[in-house]
Prior knowledge:
The chain is α/β, with parallel strands linked by helices. The protein has helices at residues 2-35, 85-92, 125-134, 156-160, 174-187, 208-211, 225-233, 235-246, and strands at residues 44-47, 50-53, 62-65, 70-76, 96-101, 140-148, 163-166, 191-193, 216-224. Residues 1-21 have low confidence and may be disordered.
Amino acid sequence: MNIKFIIIITGLLVSACQAESNISELHTDFQQWLKNSEAVPSHFTLKDGGLYAKESLDSGGEIHFKETGYACIAYAPHRFYDLHTLDIARSLFNDCQVLLTNTKHRTSRDANGVLIDFGKYKESAANAFILAYADTVESFTIFQLHGFAKEKRKTNQGRKADIIVSQGRENASLFTRNITDCLNEKLNVAVMLYGRDIYELGGTKNILTTLAPSNSQFIHIELSREIREKLITDNHLLKLFKQCLTS
Length: 247
């Protein structure tokens, strides 16, 4: 019985070490790739300038980087569930240097049975790239885009909201408040700041609330289905949306 217990504990420790070394190794690989675009990470295929994860990488992931643009990351962590968020993130990537997205469903699991939800999964390639990118710039912003359905919200504010902006906590920075106010003014829709106007969908359990580098600002943006559809069909509205984020 004791021997079985020791074997189980040893196995758990080995698995934990492997998971930790995975993000560490990816971090190193991405550091090298950012310095030399020909040094393609072993778990990725380079196509049209972007990195696409191979099956050998549990977390999956798609990564795009360019030298030009603002020091910001357009991030769609749930491309298959949050309809149009990837399209909006791709448009934002025209202004930002980085585009990140998932390539596996958020209900997929890794070798240890852990859900691969990029909003919560620590060992993702996206997180490793964020850490590597942080080494190359003085400061940057992560714009993580999500989708929600008004009819599923628990509060009156949630059922009225078109956009919910947060930092994953109730006390928002001046930068985040300014983005919220700009969106309210320019888009003429119901934009709410988590911790001030609304107390749901604030991204408080998001992995980036603790993992985001100290030289970054994490902006969590929830978009209703209605506003997502407007943003992908109205170029002027999309332009105003992006201006509020990057200006």
